[in-house]
């Protein structure tokens, strides 16, 4: 194993476009002279097309390149190109074996290769040809090429055949050629001129970028005589070819005739030239097999290094008309030389060794072919020692990969391979032990395969699997699909032992050994995170289809074209390879004797929305995945972040509306919706319109956001007017720490299922915190290697500011019931959530819930957070896993999301307007139950800020088991202290008024709330109100705020010589420092310790006698 460069994005092979402009003056369309049959073309080295051939184009710009299989004739000649990257045609060179290579660019819109033939006296005209890609581009455009014909030199062409279309999709330069054969229709028989052409068209219309050069080669056209058949069959090709060298020892001889033949009478003679001895085989022998026009002679005795020639008796074969083969007695027609004796084979295990790299050098090996991969890049096959040749050392591999284009060996062949071994990061090794052969000989066929070797997971080390490199292996048991991100892009998935793999910080707190801890800074527990990260890697491996391009047929999927994370694989069997810096189980090709050993059990889709208990109100959050509706009038595409075309947008719209409609929540917070205002053409109005079309008019309405922020996307709220009614205006934070500000709305429940009070309400907040992507992150926002990614400092500051915003929302609405939902871009145990927990907010659900998949690890970035007052009313919480566990190619996009490029999706049948993969995040759903009757029905709560006092008045409509009311006061709306009690009447069913007067109110902003206490001591928190009083006594301010290392207390002159007591409190109310002295001394005492405190919100209380002032600041 040698690590090397990461996998590059897949490429779709196509005709290559470059920015070249050529004049078209002087070009005309040549009509080639008809050629007598047989006609052959095997290569081109000159700049002039060979006799009988012309290369036409369809226009003078790339826009005229056909986008379907056009039958129209061309309108000019395509000029010869002098370089491999310029538009036009040229001889294809090495990768194209000197075929005609086409490339479209600018005014050179390549169109077709045209060959003119004379079929007079001929029928059943057969056309054979090869196609291959010779120069590949990295862009995303597919092209196809197919055969057509016409009679004469004018008129439209006619398509020939439906199965001989060549597509560049999934192919790279030098890929194995595709061979085609078609018989022209009877109309082409006995004609003085017939034109056949190979026309191409662009099947990925609308994309931009380069196209690949495609070559047409090895053209052979012939026909049968129109009268009685008097032509004897002749041998057209031989294998081994005449004068071939390095022929395998166990090779069969194959003669391909010009037409179908049957056995006659006579012998085939193979002469050993060094001894003039013959092997004579009667054509009637079972070793001679005739299939159509192909004769195979097997069981020939050959010797290393010897030269042979083959002769065949006249009359040994005949065609269907009885015309006898004239024979081949000339010893110079079919000669070949067998490969030299490779010597004594070296055990593969001794080449592999016990280290991470095989021993380089020239070796001969012997072993059984366990799997053949002709379409890989590089192509080749795996060879493993026979069971009897295993060295017994468990640390050495018994197999190696043989690199060979167009391999002809079969699974079960015993082969002798001589060549050069290497294992490094360069091609064609790519970190895997390979042998590039100088000779490959088949000693015998049909041998039993070596028994698959058992592997264990979790691996004992990162190099544990090296000992099995190249071998046929099996994991006996169950593995879980934990990553399907690359399924559409590369045909690979990740499997794990012991269930799905979680993000470490989903389960482990970076700062607290106790997962219930709420510390939100430090790295005291990072070692545990790194340990879990290593454990995750050791229990995970990759199942691959062996190619670095999009699969032609989706592997592993069920009838819904999906393979959800959580599906399982039983008895995984394959070849353990290595590539792209990872060990991979290579999927055995279809038809392999062990291919059926591996089986899949598919995780079911959650077709119904999960229940959230007996909820009075159901609320949700939903990421709408960059929902951009263009200009709202059908135009404006492509959009800056979302759909590229209107077709894409309509698919996205259908999926999202289906999903949100199925959730049927009373309030839904939307994330990643276009920030384009609130008018009728906005994205927000569009999504509400779609929901109302699905569910009925006026089912949903939307909240108008007061401040949407600076980002291209924003947060939004939609709601059901029949279930909830907005109370007051919406609130947004304008703090610059947010570029996507949180949005809050107070809702009153209008359903009769709510508590008896007509004023039961709650606050709903939707958030979208800074992402984990690093970008320009620096300082504390750079990755701190604590598992939390980049911008964790910003997200934690956003949490602190969200607490301030929540307090503002509470004070403005007079309601402590708060649910804050959205994408916090923080996993369950990370600092931003602990910052919320530290402020008495409750993060619902648990650590094994998930809403997002990244890097093959599951976790939840999406959360529902509630105030402690609301927590007891939560009837249930669920995450509807319709997105995170589904493959990316099921989305609305025309392309496959491959992490940085938008590759064409060749499986149009995978799209469905259902909810699955409507986004990349899962929806979060919460039920709130307001049905239980409160002990007190509160109908009014007022806080009156008077000159020297604050008067609190409240009124109840009824009371049950009510002992007293507690009046509490706070400076931060987090930590409250009781300032007084008012006795209650116990039980009563008539209205009653109460009053309490605070004669010592705080200067500045403070908060009052009412707490009802039952006879048994049960507390129920009711309303909260804020008041802001001018400073009438000592005036203090703090700066800078936020502060890093030194805090200044600014005071009016008359306070400088006054002794004050002070308390420094954290956000939970814990006293960290206390003392007394002059203001300057207090400032010095605090600055001596401030570097020791964590980042977060703090309160400085300065007081003397009956005077107190509370000053809030943030430590950065």
Compile the SSE list and pairings.
Blueprint: E1 35-36, E2 39-41, E3 53-57, E4 76-77, E5 88-91, E6 100-103, E7 110-118, E8 122-135, E9 143-151, E10 158-159, E11 166-167, E12 178-183, E13 194-202, E14 213-225, E15 235-239, E16 244-247, E17 253-257, E18 262-263, E19 267-272, E20 277-282, E21 288-291, E22 294-297, E23 307-312, E24 317-318, E25 335-338, H1 348-352, E26 361-373, E27 380-384, E28 399-403, E29 414-422, E30 434-444, E31 453-454, E32 472-483, H2 487-490, E33 493-496, H3 504-507, H4 526-538, E34 540-544, E35 568-579, E36 582-586, E37 599-601, E38 617-627, H5 646-663, E39 667-674, H6 683-695, E40 701-702, E41 713-719, E42 724-726, E43 731-732, E44 743-749, E45 761-768, H7 792-813, E46 818-823, H8 831-837, E47 841-843, E48 852-854, E49 857-859, E50 862-867, H9 868-871, E51 874-880, E52 895-897, E53 902-904, E54 923-928, E55 936-945, E56 950-970, E57 977-988, E58 992-998, E59 1004-1014, E60 1019-1029, E61 1036-1039, E62 1048-1051, E63 1060-1066, E64 1071-1077, H10 1079-1089, E65 1096-1104, E66 1107-1115
